[in-house]
Design a protein that fits this description.
CATH topology of chain B: MetI-like fold
Helix content of chain A: over 70%
Strand content of chain A: under 5%
Oligomer: heterodimer
CATH class of the domain at 103-274 in chain A: Mainly Alpha
Order of helices and strands of chain B: HHHHHHHHHHHHH
Number of domains of chain B: 1
Structural class of chain B: mainly alpha
Strand content of chain B: under 5%
Structural class of chain A: mainly alpha
Largest interface: A-B, 49 and 45 residues
Distance between the termini of chain A: 11 Å
Order of helices and strands of chain A: HHHHHHHHHHHHH
CATH superfamily of chain B: MetI-like
Number of strands of chain B: 0
Amino acid sequence: MATFLLKRILLLVPMLFGITVITFVVIHLAPGSPTDSLTELNPKASARARENLKKIYGLDKPLHIQYFHWVRRLAVMDLGRSFTDGRSVLVKIRERLPITILINVCSMLLILAVAVPIGILSATKQYSFFDKATTVLVFVGFAMPTFWLALLLMILFGATLGWLPISGLQSMHADQLTFWPLLCDRARHLVLPIFVSSFGGLAGYSRYMRSSMLEVVRQDYIRTARAKGLPERAVIYKHAFRNALMSTITILGLAIPGLIGGSAIFEQIFAIPGMGKLFLDATWARDYPVVMGILFIGALLTLLGNLVADIAYAVADPRVRVEEAQ
Amino acid sequence: MRTNESYFQIVARRFRKNRLAVAGSVIISILFVLALFAPLLSRYDPSRIDVENILSPPSAAHWMGTDESGRDVLSRMIYGARVSMLVGFVAVGIATLIGIFFGAVAGYYGGKVDAVIMRFVDIMLCFPTFFLILAVIAVLEPSLLNIMIIIGVTGWMGVARLVRAEFLALKEQEFVQAARAFGASDFRIIFRHLLPNAMAPVLVSATFGIAGAILTESALSFFGLGVQPPTPSWGNILSSGYKYIDFAHWLSIFPGLAILVTALGYNLLGEGLRDALDPRLMTEE
């Protein structure tokens, strides 16, 4: 296990290097320089002010030197300052990150809690009414434009039925509430965002669980389990389910970038002050330091998520850690 | 299994038996006709402003009502189909070409080349795709052409992995060794012998990819970072229309439904193709 862990962690080094290179390249695709938006749109900016800005951001140096400087600052988690309000990018992200992570973790748990039973049920009752109904739902889930679903739910639950709040994180009177009512208020605000962010994953995951169950039930050891007279429940939940869940762990790791990326969409629509909304706002404002910072942090989160999934997989399946260590 | 059928005939027969797949191809065909003949099929100029008919509900004259400038929504939707089809095909075309190139090179040459390319794929996959797309749009101007290129350039990794896996499995087989023994060049082996045998999964993933690209474009256009008005796209019709959702719901319902149905059509088509092309399922008949 120790060798496996060490190998996995060493692998992070070239990955991190690659992530910084790509982030750097993306931002420097810009025709002209990143400071143009600050100066060209502002007629008062003189040529000297422009040169000054370039010096501050180090843009007068050759590209590889710029990259080197950027990575050196990155190593001490200095992501620069926002173009729009001059605040530290790291601080801005740190303020926004917890809510984005909270929503993503909740969606992940919701996906697991709902999709796994659905997958098992439709696999064990293949071609039943339940299986066909969920298949249709899965297809709709795959094809659903998230932002449209969010709008429809806002109209239905917020405006028409008036059951749930439709924007922000808390009600206006929230600061007068005590702990439990406040928690309840928060939760009500999070219902729709969490549902929307897990919708696509729900479809994909239950489909995946179904096919991996179907694959497992065909294996010899399932036939053996049945042949030795085990009750069907034990065959499905002890033998088949545990093996089917294995491959599902890896997919959970792969789902992370999709969830993080999707946060931009629902955070904007539900006016949730998270990292995704910060990113969209920065994109509109062409706030390059913020864009660069979030792009980097987003990739970092994915990398760590995958590491956790890999470790979980190795813990759950002894075959993996033996093979990988060799 | 009937023995005198060609591979294509078998696939076509198996595809036709699948009702959902046929439904998917009908949806896509209708959309193609709409997109191709948009000027003939739409009753109004999609950008003609009519101040006397602002936000009028669906009627005999305007089947899908009019928008906040009095423009005919149905005509704008038909022209919007052009954008969706174009983005879907071009973006996925770009992604598929890049993916085939990297996948083929990695799978065929193996060794260090393979290691470097696949590590690059892993690194690209670390970025949440939507974030990567947003970052590039922050740098470049949002326009139809840029959107197609960006979606394509950020979406090739899956294809590369598929093609590589197919090549690894195929390149040790006898027909490849025979071709090599006859003195065929690497180029010829890759394009004449290996690639045609690896195309089935690529075709399936490209079909799903089109649905994904259309969904991405509509989300970008919805946030004003995609196709720019006045060019109508389903995303930007929705974007300008949802402000009026309280009293003009048709501006929000129809474009969203169109996106959903189109993506659904491509997904059904892809699923049908996968089942029809799967050799493991063929022998079961």
